[in-house]
């Protein structure tokens, strides 16, 4: 049993069997994390660098914990505190780090395609994409899938809606690829200005502009952050207006004829895309997503670390 | 394919092992049984069935341990892991590891490593159905053994779950 790929660049390149293998392995790692000693020695001869060209709380800590709990050595790199500011290129930076005998690279980068670029130039080194621009965030989609499965069972046939800023969200794209491969039904919901025009034709998802209808349709609502830092022009008037029209509120959920699972990849803008009483409510699995992230990333690193 | 233990022989040995496992025990409450995933579990399930019959009304602590993440060849070949389930403390207990075939001893080495992450047992013992005595690569020997064989290097020993017999092929 092994993955069909040497790198994890995106969900797009994975087969359903790869996804199943990662999710199954993650179940075993989740058990490891419940033990008195939350650590296994599987990757004790591996050194991993975490290259973060963009800010991150969850993903970075999650990867670092996953590495430590697999027994790997890890080093952290953030672009702001490095020679990147002196003009060193991405490839030069990575090659310099690799020459110090580093085996794997986990990278987040603001440019879409950055992970793909690295994998192309460094075919022998395992590259794990921790988010590239508005393209993909594969480990987030994997941990979302893991959390859905854990909560409501097999993904096939489940109805999942992605709410909000679909246009700028790498989480949305990775989720769509993954859920499609696993046989779930996917809807995207939000204001027309935040939903790419041809997404229905290109990716085969249902598009809905009425938030209430979308929530009534789904089993799971994955609510995405409004990414103000990526929005180069005005796409809606004010955050307050966005909240009134598309924010997921307690009142909205109470008006549904069924209970739905609430997810959010974080960081949350409370009172914008989601209200506090929904984010902290009994149907929210937002903190379980974070917990599962470590197990899922352990599975990814473990499966990619096979000695060639 | 050669039959090493027929189904009736297999059951007789399981019964004997079950009796041996409890005969030294004044207090079964301080003993925990752990079957090794994946192949040892069939044998350990059978043995525990017998142990329960021999100790009616007593609570038998029985868990499963997967050693995949502790293997010394973990990065040479990726193995699919199985479920680990040890829903009790092993601190201060006598732990009896149960596996089907003792061959190189590397699985048991990994199991001893894994066990440490669950606590500090008072004592660890090893029970195997088949002991291939000339194939050891580490200084590990069983405390309880169903049958000892002098297997050839190129032979494999397998417990056939469906027929309940042990074969060499």
Residues in helix, % of chain B: 25-40%
Q: Any idea what the shape of chain A is?
A: globular
Strand content of chain B: 25-35%
Oligomeric state as shown: heterodimer
Give a brief description.
The complex is a heterodimer of chains A (308) and B (169). Chain A has 308 residues and is an alpha/beta fold.
Question: Please, could you describe this protein's structure?
Answer:
The complex is a heterodimer of chains A (308) and B (169). The relative contact order of chain A is 0.16. In chain A, α1 (16-32) packs across α12 (286-304). Chain A has helices spanning 16-32, 58-69, 90-98, 114-121, 138-152, 170-181, 199-203, 211-217, 239-246, 250-254, 276-279, 286-304; strands at residues 47-52, 73-78, 104-109, 126-132, 159-163, 185-189, 206-208, 220-223, 261-263. The model of chain A has no long low-confidence stretch (mean pLDDT 94). Chain A folds into two domains: 11-137 and 290-307, Aspartate/ornithine carbamoyltransferase (Rossmann fold, 3-Layer(aba) Sandwich), CATH 3.40.50; 138-285, Rossmann fold (3-Layer(aba) Sandwich). Chain A is built from twelve helices and nine strands. With 308 residues, chain A is of the alpha/beta class. In chain A, β1 (47-52), α2 (58-69) and β2 (73-78) form a beta-alpha-beta unit. Chain B is of the alpha/beta class and 169 residues long. Chain B has a single domain, classed as Rossmann fold, CATH 3.40.50.2020. Chain B is built from three helices and eight strands, in the order βαβαββαββββ. Chain B has helices spanning 7-23, 40-54, 106-116; strands spanning 2-5, 31-36, 61-65, 94-102, 123-132, 144-149, 157-160, 165-168. A five-stranded parallel beta sheet of chain B has the order 3-2-4-5-6. In chain B, β4 (94-102), α3 (106-116) and β5 (123-132) form a beta-alpha-beta unit. In chain B, α1 packs across α2. Chain B is globular. The N and C termini of chain B lie close together (5 Å). In chain B, 39% of the residues are buried. The mean pLDDT of chain B is 90. Classes of the chains: A alpha/beta (308), B alpha/beta (169). Chain A binds chain B through residues 1-2, 21, 24-25, 27-28, 31-32, 35-37, 39-43, 45-46, 302-303, 305-307, and chain B through 66, 68-70, 74-85, 113-114, 116-119.
């Amino acid at each position: 049993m092994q993955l069909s790929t040497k790198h994890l660049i995106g969900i797009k390149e994975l087969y359903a069997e790869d996804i199943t293998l990662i999710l199954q392995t993650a179940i075993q790692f989740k058990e490891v994390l419940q033990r008195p000693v939350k650590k296994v020695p599987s990757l004790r001869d591996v050194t991993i660098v975490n290259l973060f060209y963009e800010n991150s709380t969850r993903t970075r800590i999650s990867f670092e914990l996953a590495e430590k709990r697999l027994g790997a050595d890890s080093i952290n790199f953030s672009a702001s505190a490095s020679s990147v500011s002196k003009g060193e290129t991405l490839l030069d930076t990575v090659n310099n780090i690799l020459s110090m005998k580093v085996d794997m690279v986990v990278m987040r980068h603001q440019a879409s395609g950055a992970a793909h670029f690295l994998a192309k130039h460094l075919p022998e080194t395992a590259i794990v994409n921790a988010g590239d621009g508005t393209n993909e965030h594969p480990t987030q989609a994997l941990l979302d899938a893991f959390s859905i499965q854990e909560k409501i069972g097999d993904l096939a046939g489940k109805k999942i809606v992605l709410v909000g800023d679909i246009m700028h969200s790498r989480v949305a794209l990775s989720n769509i690829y993954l859920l499609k491969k696993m046989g779930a039904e996917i809807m995207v919901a939000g204001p027309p200005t935040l939903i790419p025009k041809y997404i229905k034709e290109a990716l085969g998802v249902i598009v809905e502009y009425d938030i209430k209808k979308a929530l009534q349709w789904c089993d799971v609502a994955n609510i995405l952050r409004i990414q103000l830092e990526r929005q180069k022009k005005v796409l809606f008037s004010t955050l307050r207006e966005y909240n009134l029209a598309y924010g997921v509120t307690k009142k909205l959920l109470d008006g549904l004829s069924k209970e739905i699972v609430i997810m959010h990849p974080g960081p949350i803008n409370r009172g914008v895309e989601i209200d506090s009483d929904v984010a902290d409510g009994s149907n929210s699995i937002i903190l379980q997503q974070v917990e599962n992230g470590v197990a899922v990333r352990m599975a990814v690193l473990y499966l990619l670390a096979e000695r060639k | 394919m050669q039959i090493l233990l027929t189904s009736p022989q297999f059951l007789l040995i399981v019964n004997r092992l079950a009796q041996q496992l409890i005969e030294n025990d004044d207090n079964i409450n301080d003993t925990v049984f752990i079957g090794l995933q994946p192949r040892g579990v069939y044998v350990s399930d059978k043995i525990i069935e017998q142990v329960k019959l021999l100790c009616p009304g007593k609570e038998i602590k029985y868990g499963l341990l997967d050693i995949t993440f502790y293997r010394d060849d973990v990065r040479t070949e990726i193995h699919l892991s199985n479920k680990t389930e040890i829903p009790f403390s092993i601190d201060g207990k006598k732990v009896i590891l149960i596996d089907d075939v003792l061959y190189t001893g590397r699985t048991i080495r990994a199991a001893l490593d894994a066990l440490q992450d669950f606590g500090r047992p008072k004592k660890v013992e090893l029970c195997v159905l088949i002991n291939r005595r000339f194939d050891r690569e580490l200084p590990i020997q069983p405390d309880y053994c169903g049958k000892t064989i002098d297997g050839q290097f190129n032979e494999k020993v397998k417990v056939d779950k469906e027929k309940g017999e042990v074969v060499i092929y």
